[in-house]
Amino acid sequence: MVEFLIPRRRYDSELLDSSGHDDELVLRTVRDIQRSNTVLRGAHAALAELEPYLARLPAHGTLLDVGTGFGDLPFAAAHKADEFGIALTTIGLDANPTIALGASSRVSHMVCGSGLSLPFPSASMDIVMCSQTLHHFRGTDETTLLREMNRVARVAVVVSDLRRSWIAAGGFWLASYPLGFHRVTRHDGVLSVLRGYTPDELSTAVFSAVGLRPVVHHRLGFRITTSWPPARDRS
Asked: What is the pTM of this model?
């Protein structure tokens, strides 16, 4: 990509990450994000990376979604797995109790907890994934999250996130008006893009965490995805 279209990575805090928001605002912004994932192809990108692994699962598989929001991705993954004749047990994890409660009807099990210390034994889940979650972390926390996902996964780790670009940031800002997003969603969505990754940055983050460089795919909607079999001897 032309260098001038790639802004320097930002690390400002998103408005929703600060404390003191009432439950109504939290739920409203998460609904906006869920809608954005559908309209702007975030869900499609994550499922495209995930689908090859679903086909390899046993008749009864498990999927953990870290930072699940309202559980729209594990919900869609369960339906996709059903096409392969696989009964997929989905576990959503989110650190926000209000969001966790809102997601409970869309996953098999919901857990309120931190991705930095996943409350699951090693190799206990077939697939561990996160979508638009990794960019919320930086430095040692970013590395810890990837290592924790690698530790818990048995078959694959799947990561989907935002590809940083001025075009993507401006596009989200403009699209947020006809889509009726709350001003907090608009602010945080643009900032999320500016906290996103280039393909090389995402590959390097995984290498720093688990010692391998997986293939990073460009997806529609300025998304990038990657996945790898868990590296037991490196994490």
From this structure: 0.91
Burial of residue 2, with CB atoms counted within 10 A of its CB: 0-12 exposed, 13-18 middle, 19 or more buried: exposed
CA distance 61 to 218: 27
Helix/strand/coil for 51: helix
Per-residue model confidence as pLDDT tens digits over 92-116:
999 999 999 989 999 999 999 999 9
Domains and CATH numbers, the chain: 3-228 (3.40.50.150)
Q: In this structure, what are the phi and psi dihedrals at residue 165, rounded to the nearest 5 degrees?
A: -165, 145
Please write the tens of the pLDDT for every residue from 165-176: 999 999 999 999
